[in-house]
Specification:
mainly beta, five-stranded antiparallel sheet, 1 helix, 5 strands, USP domain-containing protein, Papain-like_cys_pep_sf, USP
Length: about 100
């Protein structure tokens, strides 16, 4: 495998959508979304300057710290129906093509 290089790629959690209800077409949805340049771990324990997390539900939009978002995910993670990540490095990964 000479001349072949694989790099690890990191992804940052940017948002989650939680569903509360018995069936998908009824109930309530809550979104947790990050705005800004910061990064949070899955547990919400890290935050870089400039990032903000928001909880958006049927009635309100609330600003939360990364630590608070970690606590929300710990308590409500089983309701998550959709996660969105941002790829940290968007450079193209080039691999040598297979010989014909």
């Amino acid at each position: 495998a000479a001349n072949c290089a694989l790099r690890s790629v990191a992804y940052d959690l940017r948002s989650a959508v939680c569903h509360y209800g018995e069936v998908p077409d009824s109930g309530s949805y809550k979104a947790l979304a990050q705005h800004g340049a910061g990064v949070a771990t899955a547990s919400g324990s890290k935050e870089k300057a400039g990032s903000s997390w928001y909880v958006l539900d049927d009635c309100a939009v609330r600003l939360k710290s990364a630590d608070e978002i970690g606590a929300v995910m710990d308590c409500e993670g089983h309701h998550v129906s959709f996660l969105m990540y941002r790829r940290e490095d968007t450079k193209t990964i080039n691999l040598r093509p297979h010989a014909a």
